[in-house]
Amino acid sequence: MLVAGDRAPDFTAKTQDGTPFRLSDLRGVPVILYFYPKASSAGCTRESVEFAKFHGEFAAQGVRIVGISVDDVEKQKAFAEECHLPFPLLADTTREIARAYGALGAFGLAKRVTFLIDGSGRIDDVIDTLLPKAHVERARRRWVPGGPRPP
C-alpha cells in the first residue's frame, strides 16, 4: 500500500454518470480519495453519507472528495442517487487503480482505505481502518479548521 510522501498515481476512470475523470485534473487542490468495498453495503453507505454530510466544510477549504470501488458505473450511479452524494464516485472495474494504490483486498474488492492527497499530488496521509466514520473524522482533522480533535 502507498504511504504518506508517495506520489499519488494518476488514473482515468468513469464517474457514476459515465464521464471520464482524471485525478491529475485536480492538481493544485487537496483531494480525499476514498476506496470502499461495495456500493450500497452498510459500512460503505455510512462512510459515504458521512462524507456527504461534511461535503460543504471540505468544499469551503477547497478540498475535493472522490469515492472509488470496483463496482460498475450503473451500481455507482444507483449508490450516488440513493445516498444523495454531491461528489463523484468512480468505477474501477478493472481493479487497476486499487492495485496501483495497494487498496485491492480479499475477493477482488477494494479495501476501506482513504488517501489524503495534497495539491502537489503527494499522499499526505493514509487512513486504513474498517471504521467508516474514522475516515471522515481524520480527514476533517487534517483539512477543516475546528474539525474534530482526538480525545
Would you give an account of this structure?
This protein is an alpha/beta fold and 151 residues long. It has one domain (12-143): Glutaredoxin (3-Layer(aba) Sandwich). 31% of the residues lie in helices and 21% in strands. Strands 2-1-5-4-3-6-7 form a seven-stranded mixed beta sheet. The longest helix is centred in the N-terminal third of the chain and has 12 residues, at 42-53.
List the helices and strands and how they pair.
Layout: E1 12-15, E2 20-22, E3 31-35, H1 42-53, H2 55-60, E4 64-69, H3 73-83, E5 89-91, H4 96-101, E6 113-117, E7 123-128, H5 132-143
Structure keywords:
7-stranded mixed β-sheet; 151 residues; 5 helices; globular
Percent of residues in helices comes to 25-40%
Major sheet: arrangement of strands: 2-1-5-4-3-6-7
- CATH topology (level 3) name: Glutaredoxin
Distance between the termini: 28 Å
Poorly predicted segments: none
The CATH architecture term is 3-Layer(aba) Sandwich
**What overall geometry do the principal axes of the alpha carbons give?**
globular
Instruction: Please give the count of helices.
Output: 5
Helix and strand element order: EEEHHEHEHEEH
- Cα gyration radius (Å): 14 Å
* Biggest sheet statistics: 7 strands, mixed
Overall pLDDT level: 95
Give the CATH superfamily: Glutaredoxin
Total strands: 7
- Highest CATH level, the class: Alpha Beta
Beta-strand share of residues: 15-25%
Question: What number of domains?
Answer: 1
* Class inferred from helices and paired strands: alpha/beta
